[in-house]
Specification:
heterodimer, A: mainly alpha, B: Glutathione S-transferase Yfyf (Class Pi), Chain A, domain 2, Rossmann fold
């Protein structure tokens, strides 16, 4: 993570990615199996094989487009692309890397707002209690997105079925978990 | 009594309580005590690895470090998503000693990476399968579509578990429980995973395609090994049915519930009442002794299948 992704850096973009993730983008020969197998490719602005091609060009314009794309947030990390890639290119790791950079650089696609809100609510819950508190997550998510009415009809049934805990479980070491969050966020400050 | 380390994960304490109930009940029948990793935290799931790499390494590392401290050698991780995260982090830290020591300092615990991470099927195969068939009292005589999803089998290079496109391990277990594991095409297609809340339409489409193939091939039940897959196929059923414009009402059962029913554990102990899609499996007459007349219909079915 020592390389910076600022412009005027001597490393090429794909070289930088290789340094950070160990993934060699140039191995891709555009067979398209990743895009064919990707469950969300049809919803993406750039399907996985095109993401690979754009990164291969080392063109900052393409790179910028990817950081601002929906593709990186739509990726569900199902690992199908990696599984079917004849060159075993770890595309999911590239997607993680691009998401983290997009977020850090405040370049996230506006349409990804809900997806990112969900991640943030999820992490906040862990930060506070040490675990995921589902009811807290949903309330926090609704506050962030304004989707107040979403899923209100299934909540009572879930409650009856014992699927919603009304009270969170606080682990004893929650301060230690919070300390982990503090340490990792020092060099990865949240973008927005 | 055999003692085995246990990481339930957050889902099993909340929305997927029936998974924990059925895993515990099954373990009890086979004289296994599940010992929870003390004061475990969330593995960080998709949110952590999407947003912050160091966090996504540190949260699972803390869990494994706590288990090591307790002297736990095997950790059963029934949630496929947690299993995937723990396994991937263990692998990445083993590959990179300097990253490993950095993570150890972030979590402020000694981490050696010595614990064995077992998914639910590996756990059953290691501790239960040998004794399973002798304990079956109520064969689970239903056409079952075993759904493995993504995170149990991928990425194969790290998990090295089962076949990646057409896995068999759960099918074998269902057959041992007296079931009929059907051949179908969506065993490892993605259900939409963590998008359930933030992109429900995507989940309805992906999970809908899975359910459609299962019922097109006459499945009476879908068997899963992941709380996330379960909630998408079960809780999102109204959205799935709306997407498909048909009414699919077959239940989604955890593999631990299927085996539990087969060894005679009652439905309530296994938490079958907690599913959002009601579990109304047709009652099958007990198998008659060989002399008794076999109903004609059953003979025909067997012939067609053979």
């Amino acid at each position: 993570m020592s390389a910076s992704h600022e412009s005027h850096h001597p490393l090429t973009l794909s070289g930088e990615l290789r340094l950070e993730t160990g993934v060699i983008i140039n191995k891709c020969y555009q067979c398209g199996k990743c895009s064919a197998g990707c469950p969300v490719a049809e919803e993406m602005d750039y399907p996985p094989s095109l993401v690979m091609r754009m990164l291969q060009t080392d063109d900052p314009k393409h790179y910028e487009k990817l950081l601002r794309s929906m593709s990186i947030w739509l990726c569900v990390s199902c690992e199908m692309c990696l599984t079917r890639c004849p060159m075993e290119i770890d595309i999911p790791t590239i997607m993680d890397n691009l998401r983290q950079k997009s977020y850090k650089a405040k370049k996230t696609n506006p349409q990804a707002k809900k997806i990112i809100a969900f991640h943030k609510s999820f992490l906040d819950s862990i930060n506070i209690t040490g675990r995921l508190y589902e009811m807290g997550l949903i309330v926090d998510y609704k506050m962030r997105t304004g989707a107040m009415m979403q899923d209100v009809l299934i909540a009572p049934k879930m409650f009856v079925k014992g699927k919603l805990n009304p009270v969170p479980e606080f682990i004893k070491g929650r301060k230690k978990v919070a300390a982990i969050f503090n340490r990792v966020q020092k060099d990865n400050k949240e973008g927005k | 009594m055999i003692k085995v380390g246990f990481y339930p994960g957050c889902s099993m304490k909340g929305g997927a309580q029936e998974y924990q109930e059925s895993v515990s009940a099954l373990a009890k029948v086979f004289d296994i005590e599940l010992v929870e990793v003390p004061d475990w935290n969330c593995c960080g799931a998709t949110a952590a690895h999407n947003m912050n790499k160091e966090l996504s390494l540190s949260l699972p590392a803390r869990i494994m470090a706590l288990a090591e401290k307790e002297g736990i050698t095997d950790i059963v991780v029934p949630c496929a998503a947690c299993y995937n995260r723990l396994s991937l982090v263990k692998h990445e830290l083993a590959e990179d000693p300097s990253l490993s020591s950095k993570v150890a300092s972030i979590i402020d615990l000694k981490y050696e990476g010595t614990t064995q991470i077992l998914n639910i099927i590996q756990f059953i195969d290691k501790y239960i399968t040998d004794r399973l068939e002798e304990k079956v009292v109520k064969p689970f005589d239903y056409k079952s579509a075993c759904y493995y999803g993504c995170l149990l089998v991928r990425p194969h290079s790290i998990l090295k578990f089962d076949r990646v496109e057409d896995p068999q391990s759960m099918d074998v277990l269902v057959k041992k429980a007296g079931g009929n594991a059907i051949d179908w095409a969506f065993k490892t297609e993605c259900c939409g995973a963590g998008m359930s809340v933030s992109r429900t339409d995507t989940v309805a489409r992906l999970s809908g395609n899975i359910m459609k193939d299962a019922v097109d091939r006459d499945a009476e039940v879908v068997v899963v090994a992941c709380p996330m897959c379960h909630s998408n196929l079960d809780m999102r059923r109204p959205e799935i049915n709306k997407f498909l414009d048909k009414k699919i009402d077959i239940p989604i059962l955890y593999i631990s519930q299927v085996l539990g029913l087969a060894v005679g554990i009652d439905a309530k102990t296994l938490g079958l009442n907690r599913h959002m899609t009601e579990v109304n499996l047709p009652v099958r007459p007990a198998k008659e002794p060989a002399i008794a007349a076999v109903p004609e219909k059953e003979v025909i079915t067997q012939k067609t299948e053979a």
